[in-house]
Design goal:
single chain; 7 strands; 5-stranded antiparallel beta sheet; Peptide Deformylase; globular; 136 residues; two-stranded antiparallel ribbon; alpha+beta
Length: 136
């Protein structure tokens, strides 16, 4: 289901709860909503569609990757890019790492680990911040 993008800063500032297998449906709503906003969006967190669960989707090249309960387990190469967000107007400076390692559950609820660099790493960090109630 395509959902409306939440812009309520009070709601977005709240931390998300861990996802469970019962929350797998959230991934489909994130896929649908990202697809509907693809021209202006490369990632999304569940709270951006009104669901306070630790689920994100990131577009890495031609592939969209769903991550349930993502956790950054390693990072290096600090930098401060400017970022935009569908939930905000304009862009703001963010604190990011050039290289990260993220652990998460996939759509089959299997534990995965990915090493990401550059823009892909930046997208994951932006969406993980949303889960912690941090909006750039």
């Amino acid at each position: 289901m395509i959902r409306q993008i939440v812009r309520d800063q009070f709601f977005l500032a709240q931390k998300s709860e861990p996802a469970t297998k019962a929350d797998l449906w959230v991934g489909q709503d994130l896929k649908d909503t990202l697809a509907a906003n693809r021209s202006r969006c490369v990632g999304m967190a569940a709270n951006m569609i009104g669901i306070k669960k630790r689920v994100i989707i990131v577009s890495i090249g031609p592939v969209d990757i769903l991550m349930y309960n993502p956790v950054l387990s390693a990072q290096s190469g600090y930098y401060e890019p400017f970022e935009g967000c569908l939930s905000l107007d304009g862009s703001r400076k963010a604190k990011r790492w050039q290289s990260i390692e993220v652990e998460y559950r996939d759509e089959a609820w299997k534990l995965q680990k990915k090493k990401l660099t550059g823009y892909a790493a930046q997208i994951v960090q932006h969406e993980c911040d949303h889960l912690d109630g941090i909006v750039i």
